[in-house]
Amino acid sequence: MARLRWAAGLLTACAPEPAAVTEAVIARDNTFVPETLRVPEGAPVTLTVTNDGAADHNLVRPDLDIDTGVIAPGAGAMVTIPPLTHPATFVCTLHTGMAITLVPT
Length: 105
Ligand SMILES: [Cu+2]
What we know:
Elements: H1 2-14, E1 21-27, E2 32-33, E3 36-39, E4 45-51, E5 60-61, E6 66-67, E7 76-81, E8 88-91, E9 99-104
Parallel strand pairs: 1-4, 3-9
Antiparallel strand pairs: 1-2, 4-7, 5-6, 8-9
The protein binds copper (II) ion.
């Protein structure tokens, strides 16, 4: 039994981390599409954020050091989010209530 547990631990330690993924996010006036995004747990996620609205937008999460800067209408930005183990919400600091939540699954 002890040997089986040891083997299982070794397998976990050697498991490759999930491959990085890229997801497209659209910024509109004033919502992100989608507002909830499921991502693979433990994988780095690159978001391509395109501003499809008429107003400036951004996508920010200070504690994860994520900030696209201001994205002008028609422009885009890319940010890479470190692997998540819990849902994380990112906001547009220019518009109250404009947010997107990444849910690791
Ligand atoms: Cu905004």
